[in-house]
């Protein structure tokens, strides 16, 4: 089995450490208040055995940050690069311009704004561009086109949201094929509960490029995150194994999951 392991959720890790992450900057706020903590989280992910570190650029946009956003985006890439070493790739995160769970808020003309960030991330030296947590297919494809235009390998991660109802598996499958046609090198589904992810992964089959998933922890009573969950790694791996059986070759973890899950993923692939 040859898998690519993604890092875990930076925003969750920052919140666990007690950092204040106000909207609209959210996790990017830590670039000002706690860059050493961001770097330490990256270091922990590398130690856990991940293959890709995602820079803290989810909200380093002109819309969310304001003046100076380009500097912050470059700083975020530098923090990830400082811990990645030679064997771990650094992904620049490109997110929806507004809200990941409100596709109706997707603004017109989004592609130009995504292109501005993509160009900065490419120039900062990202190994790949990860357009992630998109619930709006049109904006997602615009982000892919903008990222592909930089010449840097581009991945797309779509989301059906925490209730798995923003997009159907069929809609995600069709969008994944369109993204591959637009030049995406891989397609994924993220921030859907791990216990509800499998139909969405199966919808990616036959899309023509590598595919995968990084799920959220679901409800707290599922025991995969949102606080102390001593058996989180084993529980998450039970779900991840079904995605791999369905053909996924890229696996990670999203909101609410802890380092225990990422460490379990790294150890799982090391044994395989």
Could you explain the architecture of this structure?
By secondary structure, this protein is α/β, with parallel strands linked by helices. It has a single domain (4-271), classed as Homocysteine-binding-like domain (TIM Barrel), CATH 3.20.20.330. 43% of the residues lie in helices and 15% in strands. The chain contains eleven helices and eight strands. The chain has helices spanning 10-16, 30-33, 35-48, 62-65, 69-84, 110-123, 137-148, 169-181, 198-202, 232-245, 259-271; strands at 4-5, 52-54, 89-94, 128-134, 154-158, 186-193, 211-216, 250-253. The chain has an eight-stranded parallel beta sheet with strand order 1-8-7-6-5-4-3-2. Strand 7 (211-216), helix 10 (232-245) and strand 8 (250-253) form a beta-alpha-beta unit. Helix 7 (137-148) runs parallel beside helix 8 (169-181). The longest helix has 16 residues, at 69-84. It is globular and about 45 Å long. The mean pLDDT is 96.
